[in-house]
């Protein structure tokens, strides 16, 4: 299958609503063309590299899903609605079974969120698979920028944390040695969160009227919260006990589980700040989106992030989150 047949077969069948307008141009010309809808256009890109972001033997259907999901998670953190995306692919070979599954995973998530795949680029790579996705979304002012947290805001996090990091640790271990029965059970209970994360697109949009600042926690909650605090020139108190932990982590030694919750990346949940007046509305948004939300602390004037343990003691030496160039 040649380059052009490949693009036609797997990446040119978007049925998203934006593709229905008379002047729309999608995959197949030099550029895509679309009527920009009214509102604030938000744009993001994330890159996924074989061996860095995913294992070579990952299920290509799940990889296709994840490549788009990590971008839709950034769109969600702007309280925006996805509208379109572009897919850059560099592949060592045109493996049709791999492409069929990858495109099915990608296109299925795109369809679920009415996000049109409008273009991209496909090349040969000499070493490994490279994926670069750009996503466009439609937002409304005021945007929940990282810089907009206010003193006295509640801090919230969606979902439950820690499972992607535990799954990653077990998959790495499995490359060296066989896992025990208990470890295999733990891997089975956690690996879908690593390999098929669900972006909080509905929750993000529902929260828009209530949140001041929002961020997705792809690099781990502490690190991404630190980015939000730095941008807002404020600090926070976070209560370790209130951080939502994935239930499977009961089987993990407590210190290891807390580290996975605090600093494990690959989460794709939302962390946000909002005035305490909106607690009831925020709980309603979560019910409507079918996601849990948890209050984890408050925004403070002192420019530091303080983590308190169950006894109210300050936790020292906080673990770092994910960093490509530590
Ligand atoms: N190579 C680059 N060129 C321009 N901007 C970049 C580049 N890499 C990252 N950025 C920008 O830096 C900011 C932080 O990026 P990142 O930490 O990847 O955010 P996120 O975790 O939301 O994906 C974003 O605004 C992103 O667009
Ligand atoms: C094979 C493999 N190794 C390591 C990881 C862990 N990992 C890779 S990137 C990342 C954090 C998020 O990726 P990044 O490129 O920083 O995305 P962004 O924050 O820009 O969304 C994590 C936890 C993984 N998921 N798979
Ligand atoms: Mg990024």
Provide structural commentary.
With 326 residues, the protein is of the alpha+beta class. Helix content is 34%, strand content 22%. The chain has helices at residues 3-11, 60-77, 96-112, 163-174, 181-195, 201-207, 221-232, 254-263, 279-289, and strands spanning 40-49, 81-91, 116-124, 130-139, 154-158, 211-216, 235-239, 270-274, 293-300, 305-308. The chain has a 6-stranded mixed beta sheet with strand order 6-8-5-9-7-10. A 4-stranded mixed beta sheet has the order 1-4-2-3. The longest helix is centred in the first third of the chain and has 18 residues, at 60-77. It folds into 2 domains: 3-139, 60s Ribosomal Protein L30, Chain: A; 153-308, Phosphoribosyl-aminoimidazole Synthetase, Chain A, domain 2 (Alpha-Beta Complex), CATH 3.90.650. Bound molecules: adenosine-5'-diphosphate, thiamine diphosphate and magnesium ion.
Beta content comes to 15-25%
Kindly identify the CATH topology of the largest domain: Phosphoribosyl-aminoimidazole Synthetase, Chain A, domain 2
End-to-end distance: 41 Å
Q: What is the name of the CATH superfamily of the largest domain? A: PurM-like C-terminal domain
Widest beta sheet: strand line-up: 6-8-5-9-7-10
Query: Would you state the CATH class of the largest domain?
Result: Alpha Beta
Q: Residue ranges: pLDDT <50 for 5 or more in a row?
A: none
Any idea what the shape is?
globular
